[in-house]
Structures are given as C-alpha cells and as structure tokens.
Amino acid sequence: MTLTATVLDAPDARALAAFYQRLLGWEVGTDEQHWVTLRAPGAGAGLSFQTESAYVRPAWPARPGEQLMLAHLDIAVDDLDAACSHAVAAGAVVAEHQPQDDVRVCLDPAGHPFCLYVPL
Question: Which residues does UniProt assign to the signal peptide (predicted)?
C-alpha cells in the first residue's frame, strides 16, 4: 500500500487548491471543476481537494456542538515569522488561539487549521 494524498473537502475545490498552491508552490496535477490535485516535489504524498456541497467550516479551537476539525496539516518551515507572513499573504488567517509558543496555527480559506513549525 502507498499513501498518495490527503484529501480536503471544501465548498470550492479549485479555490482551496489555489490557496495551497500559493502556500506550498506545488504543481497542479489534476484540475477538474470539483476535484483538484497538487503534486508534492519528488515522490511524496500530494494534496487533493474535492468540492463538498454540504461542507461545514470546522471550529478552531474545538467547541461542543460545532463542526470539529477531523485532521490538520503540519508544515515544517525554516523561519516561523516569515512563513506565517507568507501564509497570510497567500490567504490564510492566523488563528486567535495559539496553544504553543513554537507553533503557529493558521486557518486556510475553508477554515481547515494547519500548523507551521520549525523542526528541532
């Protein structure tokens, strides 16, 4: 078995894929109206995006009675402040709740949390 991608649902697959393409600089593999893939450099697992008409934006941090986050992405960076600025310029929002000093939680345009961190 080989893991080939993580799939994120969104109200608009193309819009969310465009955000991650700006953020990561990855190439588009497949570009269909409701399905878009981004190819990771080398042979790593990519990201895919599918349009979900019943999409509900997750709450961050989790709150009872609201849509919970089911997964998040961890993205290693060299410079936390520069990466955070880049993410905001690409269309992310820095989350108000930051549980760790050495990690920045950001929200993509569809509300999926992702974490920027500098590896030790």
Answer: none
Give the pLDDT band (50/70/90) at residue 116: very high
- CATH number for position 101: 3.10.180.10
Look up residue 86 and give its two tokens: 């880049």
The closest alpha carbon to 73, from 24, 31, 36, 35, belongs to 24
The whole-number pLDDT of residue 40 equals 95
State the Cα–Cα distance between residues 35 and 2, nearest whole angstrom.
20
Is the same domain home to 46 and 74?
A: no
Instruction: Quote the domain boundaries for residue 84.
Output: 69-120
Q: Classify the C-alpha dihedral 107-65-51-47 as positive or negative.
A: positive
Residues 33 and 14: beta-carbon distance below 8 Å? yes
Q: Establish if 73 belongs to a structural domain.
A: yes
26, pLDDT greater than 90: yes
Is 61:98 a contact under the CB 8 Å cutoff?
A: no
| Helix, strand or coil, per DSSP, at residue 14 | helix
Q: Is 62 among the domain residues?
A: no
